[in-house]
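Task: sequence in, structure out. Protein: C2 domain-containing protein.
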Amino acid sequence: RASIGSSASETFSIVAEGKAVVGNDKKLCEVVLNVKVCEVPLAFPTVVPAGEVSGPRRLEVTVETVKSLPKMDGGIFGKCDPYVVLSFEGVEHRTQTHKNTYDAEFNETFALDVDDASKGVRSDSLVTVWDWDTASKDDEVGQFSIPAARLSELFRASIGSSGSETFTLIADGRVVVGHDRNKCTVVLHVKVCDVPVAFPNITPSSDAKGPRRLDITVASVAHLPKMDGMFGRCDPYAVLGYEGLEYKTATVKNTYECEWNETFSLDSWDVSNDAASDCVVTLWDWDAASKDDEIGSLKIPASRLSELFRASIGSSASETFSIVAEGKAVVGNDKKLCEVVLNVKVCEVPLAFPTVVPAGEVSGPRRLEVTVETVKSLPKMDGGIFGKCDPYVVLSFEGVEHRTQTHKNTYDAEFNETFALDVDDASKGVRSDSLVTVWDWDTASKDDEVGQFSIPAARLSELFRASIGSSGSETFTLIADGRVVVGHDRNKCTVVLHVKVCDVPVAFPNITPSSDAKGPRRLDITVA
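Result:
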């Protein structure tokens, strides 16, 4: 407890069996000792914090060697069967076991991640050396710890900083002495790294623009924790959240691992704009009689999503993510990290009405009958406890607006109203997009726009050139301010349209021409 730096020298008399030892010169046998009070050296002194650091960081810890192990096994030839367990924030990382040795080289690396280096680490990291036994419980050889405060500093060091340190094993408060009477030591190496980006083999294209789709498949989960009672395990399901929308997988009952392989589509209407939110996948444990319990979650940052949307069409990858809860990795029933596998694929946004295909060279007048069938998952637009939405739909085509009836106080409306869109010459195509807008009718104020979507002029031109009688339905997602409209039920607000390609009806169809008509004629047209 003396001040750091205090020092002194002292001469001690040697005692044997309670008596002072007398030297050959008839004088007391004496030993001179010098002492100095010091601070315990910091672990990895070459790795120093770099001021203000925030965001995710990774510390790669390599268990290099264990030396001067004690004899732990019986028999003349028995030595020690060591393995090392490194604990960090409740997660255990274990090396392989080396058989019958006093010195082991492991060189195994474990990745320790934090979500925000500025918040530090909450608990010490404990490193324990064990002796493996075949027929009985493994024996602890000894352990040491790296304090949370020092770990926090390591995470805040500059990227690429590294260093090695030799630690002495302690058991029952004493140094572990090896078979060779030397201290038993463990050598660790650390390196400060960035946390790798999700799906690293998918790279963005600098000139990407326009609409893109990202298909995310929630493939599987492994190493789930025990969440239910004595004989229960876990009843997992996953919820993928993006820009206020939620997509939910099926629930799998009583398991510690399962496969879903369920795919959800995230659309960006212009990938030159950044994604507006992170993509968060949350694991839940379903409960029959109580509120479902959150297991943990993973996150793909908005910045990385923006890059994925800008990757080349067809780019795909698979990635394993660790699940985190309250800043800590979730540890499964088997003491391993709980992990979720996601697959992603970059796709084009599918064409509207894919079953309606153009039929080569087509000219002359054509009609497209567009039926507004339904609007579903509308958001709450009206005030009060019981107010919902009073929707109607306006379809604009070549400057003309077609409006449905208004449905009162509902979140789902069936219209089934058909409008005829005509062109004089299908070969000339359509000049402008067709805009479909959903409105909320208000009694005493201006109607509110819920959202809209458009059918591009190029696609409309193709629809007009399809074969007579061609038809198809399509579900469109409403967009407002560049984002998907989220309904009251956390689902996308959608509109279903049906189209049918028709001939434009001729005027006065009951009057037919005569093949041998000639000479002058008069046509009297009465504006009745």
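Helices lie at 148-155, 302-309, 457-464.
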